[in-house]
Structure formats: structure tokens, C-alpha cells
Amino acid sequence: MSVSIAPYKTQLLSLLGSINKIGIAKNKLAIGLVIIPTAISMVYFSFIASDIYISESRFTIRSASKDSMSNLGGGFGGVIGKMGLNNSENDSYTAENFIQSRDALAKLNEKLNIKAAYSESSIDRLHRFAGIRFWDSSLERFYEYYLSSIVGIAHDDSSGITTLSVRAFDPKLAYVVNQQLNELSEALINRLNLRARQDMLEFAQKEVELARAKVEGINQKIHQFRNQKQTGPSEQQVAVFQQLGSEKDFADRNLAAAFASLEQARIEAIKKQLYLERVAEPSKPDQALEPKRIRGIITTFVLGLVLWGIASMIIAGVKEHQHHA
Q1: CA–CA distance, 147 with 166 (Å, rounded to integer)
Q2: DSSP labels, 71-120
Q3: Would you say residue 286 lies in a domain?
Q4: Which of 117, 122, 152, 162 is deepest in the core (most CB within 10 A)?
Q5: For the chain, what is the domain count?
Q6: Alpha-carbon distance 9 to 46, whole Å?
Q7: Does 324 fall in a domain?
Q8: Same structural domain for residues 186 and 237?
Q9: What is the pLDDT of residues 37-88, one digit of tens each?
């Protein structure tokens, strides 16, 4: 998309005046290193460079507060009621790494076909995917383009907040990609929570089932023993009954311990529960923030001057050496 640089007319006229004052207009070296590159830069930023829109969002990953979980006296329900949230900085990097992963890109491409969107011919060749390296449009190359030109991530260590920025040549696409990345990250956190909860509770639940089965087995033996036709209690029968009673006491204690372990496992699962909290929803850009057109022109001009100065000194030194020789 071409954009007029008429608002920068005063600055450009001043820039051209600077070229004239320096007196390099008639210097062939200066023409090649300063004037021509600056002119090309002016044409590019005025009529060729595409507008780039940026959508930003902010999120943080939180976990259950360890302090609020330490008091277990109130029971499981009491723990839930008192539960707080703490920043989980290490887990924030999990979401960030996912956003920068090939898996995230694959899901985005599947839902939004962003590879085609960033390859449209209406986008200037310097910025669109496979514009300069048109012969390489592989997914691996697009992944590199995704990391360098589409997504940007900044993490604030003090607050634990992650800022996600998405660049696109259409404001709606920038917003939609950012929104999708937030939803995909949240889905990832939920999957991790479910997996961790299942892993932590599976063993404890199996122990409860085994302990309950032993109690039921002992109860059945006691029931069968009592229903047997007996003429009178013998010493052997008393010993058997006492043995069954001891086994029942042990099985009951074992079942109670298994239930306590299960409840502790549930509490530990709550402690490790993660939450993706959106601090700021993805923004809907209504103005292109890039490229910085006038800055690009001035940068080209300044770099050209630096190169011209270095080249002039080298040429002058060579001529002086030849003169003395």
C-alpha cells in the first residue's frame, strides 16, 4: 500500500537542502553513496512500502497461592474458599514458548491460512513472505518469517506480565491472530492442568480402590463366619474371629489413610493449578504503526553520508600515498 509522505514535506526539503549545503551534489562518489540511495528510499517509503498494523495483548500465568493453601484445617472446601493466586513466572515461559512454536503456527495456519495471507502480492516484496526469496516458500522458511516478522514477545520479570504483539498488513488479521494465540495458549494451560491433575490423582485413587476392596473382603469373611452354624464357640473359632477383627481394624485404618492421601493429592493438584489471566485483550489497530517512513529515509541518508565519508578518506589516503611515492 502506497502512502504519501506529504506530511513530511518540510523535513524532506530540509534534507535535500542539507545535501546541497554539504556540496556533494557534484561528487560522483556522493551521488552513488548518498543521493541515489536516498532517492530510492524516498520512492520506496512514499509509494511502495506496505502499512503494517500491530495488535497487542497482555497476559500472565497465575497459580494457587502457597500461603493460602498451607492451612489444611478447614478441609478441602475451606481451602477452595481461601485460595488466592500468585504469579507463576516459570509457567509464563511455557505459554511464550508455545506461541513461538511450530505447533502454534500450524494451528494458526490451519484455522486462518496465514501463510497465504502474508504472501499476497498486494504486500510489498520486501515485507511479504517469499518476496525476496521467492524460490523458497517452505513451511520451515515461513516459520522463520513467523518468528521474525509476525509475532513478538516481551516479558516483564517484575510483574510477570507477557506482552504479545502481532504484525499484519491488515488490521483485522493482526487482531484475529492475536486473539487466536491467546485462546490457544489458554487451551494449552487447561490441558496441562488436566494432565497434571490426572497424574497426581490416579495413583491415590487406585490406592483407595485397593484399600476399599480389602475392607469389603474382610467384611465378607466376617459375615460368612457369623452365618456359619455353630454349636458353641470353640477356642479355634475365637482365634479366627479375633484374627478377622484385627485384619478389619488394619484394613479400616489403611482405607482411612488412603482417603487422606487422596484428599491431599487433590489439594496438591489445586496448588499446581495454572490460570492464564488476560491483563489486556488484543487491541484492534486502526492506524499503521510501521514502517517509520521518514525515519527510514533519514537513516538511509545518514548511512550514505557515513559511507561517503569513509570512502573519501580512503581515496584521499591512497592518492596521498601515490603522490609521495
Answers
A1: 10
A2: --TTHHHHHHHH--EEE-HHHHHHHHHHHTSHHHHHHHHHHH-HHHHTT-
A3: no
A4: 162
A5: 2
A6: 11
A7: no
A8: yes
A9: 999 998 988 888 999 999 999 998 887 654 444 444 444 444 333 434 455 5
pLDDT, one tens digit per residue, over 230-285 is 556 667 777 777 887 887 788 788 888 878 877 777 777 676 677 888 999 999 99
Mean pLDDT of all residues belonging to the chain: 80
**If you search the block for the grid coordinates 520451515, which residue do you land on?**
140
**CA dist list (Å): 306 to 19, 43, 47, 312:** 13, 21, 26, 10
**Domain around 152:** 53-280
Integer Cα distance of 47 and 26 in angstroms = 27
Residues 107 and 30 placed together within one structural domain of the fold: no
For residues 30 and 81, membership in a common domain is answered with no
Sign of the dihedral defined by the CA atoms of residues 279, 281, 284, 289, in that order = positive
Query: pLDDT by residue (tens digit) across 192-202?
Result: 888 777 777 77
Whether 298 is covered by a domain: the verdict is yes
Residue 255, all three cell numbers: 482405607
Q: Which three cell numbers stand for residue 67?
A: 500461603
Distance between CA 13 and CA 38 in Å, rounded? 13
